[in-house]
Write a sequence for this structure.
């Protein structure tokens, strides 16, 4: 019991902006550096080493950014929902700030996934955009991110913005499966008009390694950017707090 | 219980005294649905294909129109404070308000839909499916819209925020609603789609009022 | 209603209440204990958080720290039961423009589950001097008349605790006297009244508690 309370208080100590601010300041350069190294390695493998695809030629190489971006777009939304739960359960202000700091990155990856998908679709399917189930769900995910950010920026009171944003993130995450399946069924109803994705051909090992490296790079990049953004949010919100003035940052 | 009935009764009475606002929503619905042939051409074949989708999109937009201000007046005149302190649990009070709103705005839409269906050359049975899907689907639209209205209570940008927040979440309703008519016209049978809509309706009626009440508390603290 | 509470005499107490609006801290360490029959006067400059304190007391807002107790029990555990003990009148009068005065009163009473006859409602309106306006839509009433319609609820409610935000604002001398009398009667029946006011009101009360928010303020006076 005593250890439990101890670890709890330790957890909450890092949930306090005053403790987290310098920690984040120390950590983010490391994450950024690791992201850069991984991205370089991933790109080198993806663009130079991985073999040309038998059916798609070199245009498939876009997956080295497309697939990690698509993964991140969904994963970041899940992480936001997780922080939303923390916001409600523990009333920690930092979790709400993390949620807010992650949203633009999530939206960016969603946009990249859509954009690179379109770039790949043109040579492969002959169209920039097809109303494929996955593409359409991804588009709606982008709308969810935009709605979250629009609401956050429209509310001046930070407590209300945090709580309202957390509620929107939770409602969104509950609805994502419903949206995904309905879009899938919609797709089968309109079979004639759409192009179904062919099964992914068995992937060369180099391709897989390159993709995983890029995914890790995106991951590290997201953490670094979120930490930088959360530091900015802390400065903005705690500008009157004594600890920040002592740190000489405000 | 009496208080719940009173909320509903006064909500209907207030709507009755502001009849013109209700007529506006209905007018918007009919006008939007009538614009599509003007933009796309009057080819009967094409109109029959897009009819159900157009009516559904118009219904989606029309329900949002009135919902954005569902709680705004209560917030401004202090009634919301009294609702929060009333003997009715806030989720139930919200549900009563949403129910009344559905009765006065969405039911007229469902009743007007057959006329629009005729404009688009839908068969009698397809119109039947269309109305059934609207009856099942519009309550979900109202519940989701109420959530948006509660979250944006008192915000300056509230009016445009509600659609941005709510429309993505309404996609499944649109797909199932328009899909049911299309499946019927393709000879696949609307049954599964209508069942899905009904399931969605039950889930949303049970869950959304709590979310709306929570959002109202967040917004009016 | 009151008789249900007889075993435990009315007692409203607050301990260590702190409030924050946005990034601004308004007050902290607000505490008082008001036994049956007390008038609690909440004072302070504009923006010192008087309305916020009342909203915290009734449970519309949550405090950053501290708690409110009724008859020794914390009220936060059962908000619905707490709401059934009090009557709250905020800045806004909670009147619907399209309903007439009598209907507005009926709506307010049914929301509070305190049903009353039409005669009782008209009598309450008469007491506040607005009976002749009972059939007019609220949007046609003047500010003072609207306030009187809202205050007519006081003549109908049986709740032991009244929490009133600036109840005297916009009233003429006759209405102020009538409101003063309603408050005095309520206090004599061992009710409790919490109110904010800028005017000097002379009420005959046996027990008066002053909560000065300037003293609990976290900002240096301007």
């Amino acid at each position: 019991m005593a250890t439990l309370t101890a670890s709890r208080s330790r957890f909450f100590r890092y949930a306090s902006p005053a403790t987290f601010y310098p920690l984040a300041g120390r950590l983010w350069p490391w994450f950024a550096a690791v992201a850069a190294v991984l991205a370089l390695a991933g790109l080198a493998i993806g663009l130079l080493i991985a073999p040309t695809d038998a059916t798609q030629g070199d245009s498939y190489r876009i997956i080295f950014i497309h697939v990690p971006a698509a993964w991140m777009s969904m994963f970041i939304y899940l992480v936001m929902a997780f922080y939303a739960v923390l916001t409600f359960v523990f009333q920690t202000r930092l979790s709400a700030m993390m949620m807010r700091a992650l949203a633009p990155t999530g939206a960016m990856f969603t946009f990249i996934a859509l954009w690179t998908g379109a770039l790949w679709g043109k040579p492969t399917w002959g169209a920039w955009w097809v109303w494929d189930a996955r593409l359409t769900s991804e588009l709606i995910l982008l709308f969810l991110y935009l709605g979250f950010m629009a609401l956050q920026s429209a509310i001046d009171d930070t407590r209300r913005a945090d709580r309202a944003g957390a509620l929107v993130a939770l409602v969104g995450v509950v609805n994502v499966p419903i949206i995904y399946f309905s879009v899938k069924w919609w797709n089968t109803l309109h079979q004639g008009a759409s192009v179904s994705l062919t099964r992914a051909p068995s992937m060369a090992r180099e391709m897989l390694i390159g993709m995983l490296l890029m995914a890790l790079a995106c991951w590290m990049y997201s953490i670094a950017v979120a930490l930088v953004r959360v530091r900015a949010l802390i400065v903005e919100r705690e500008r009157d707090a004594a600890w920040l003035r002592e740190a000489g940052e405000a | 219980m009496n208080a719940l009935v009173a909320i509903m009764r006064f909500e209907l009475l207030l709507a009755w005294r502001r009849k013109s606002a209700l007529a506006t929503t209905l007018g918007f619905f009919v006008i939007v649905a009538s614009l599509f042939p003007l933009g796309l051409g009057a080819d009967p074949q094409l109109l029959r294909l897009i009819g159900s989708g157009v009516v559904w999109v118009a219904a989606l937009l029309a329900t949002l129109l009135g919902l954005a201000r569902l709680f705004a007046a209560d917030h401004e005149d202090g009634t919301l404070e009294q609702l929060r302190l009333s003997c009715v649990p806030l989720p139930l009070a919200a549900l009563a308000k949403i129910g009344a709103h559905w009765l006065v705005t969405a039911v007229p839409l469902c009743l007007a839909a057959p006329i629009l269906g005729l404009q688009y050359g839908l068969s009698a049975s397809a119109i039947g499916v269309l109305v059934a899907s609207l009856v099942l689907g519009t309550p979900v639209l109202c519940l989701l819209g109420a959530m948006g209205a509660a979250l944006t209570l008192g915000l300056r940008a509230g009016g445009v925020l509600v659609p941005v927040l709510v429309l993505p979440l309404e996609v499944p309703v649109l797909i199932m609603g328009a899909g049911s008519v299309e499946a019927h016209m393709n000879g696949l049978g609307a049954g599964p789609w209508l069942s899905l809509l009904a399931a969605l309706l039950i889930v949303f009626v049970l869950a959304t009022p709590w979310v709306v009440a929570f959002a109202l508390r967040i917004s009016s603290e | 209603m009151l008789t249900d509470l007889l075993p435990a005499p009315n007692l409203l107490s607050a301990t260590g209440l702190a409030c924050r609006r946005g990034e601004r801290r308004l007050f902290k360490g607000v505490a008082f204990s008001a036994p049956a029959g007390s008038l609690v006067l909440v004072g302070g400059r504009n923006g010192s958080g008087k309305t916020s304190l009342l909203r915290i007391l009734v449970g519309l807002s949550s405090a950053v720290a501290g708690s409110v107790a009724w008859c020794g029990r914390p009220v936060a555990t059962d908000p619905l039961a707490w709401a059934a003990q009090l009557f709250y009148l905020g800045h806004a009068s909670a009147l619907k423009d399209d309903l007439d005065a009598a209907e507005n009163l009926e709506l307010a009473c049914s929301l509070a589950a305190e049903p009353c006859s039409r005669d009782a409602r008209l009598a309450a309106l008469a007491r506040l001097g607005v009976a002749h306006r009972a059939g007019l839509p609220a949007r046609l009433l003047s500010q003072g008349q609207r306030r009187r319609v809202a205050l007519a609820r006081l003549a109908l409610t049986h709740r032991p605790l009244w929490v009133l935000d600036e109840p005297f604002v916009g009233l003429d001398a006759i209405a102020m006297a009538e409101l003063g009398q309603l408050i005095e009667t309520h206090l004599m029946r061992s009710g409790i009244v919490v109110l904010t006011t800028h005017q000097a009101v002379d009420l005959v009360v046996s027990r008066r508690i002053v909560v000065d928010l300037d003293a609990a303020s976290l900002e240096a006076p301007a």
Notes: The two ends of chain A are 40 Å apart (CA to CA). Residues 17-49 of chain A form the longest helix (33 residues).
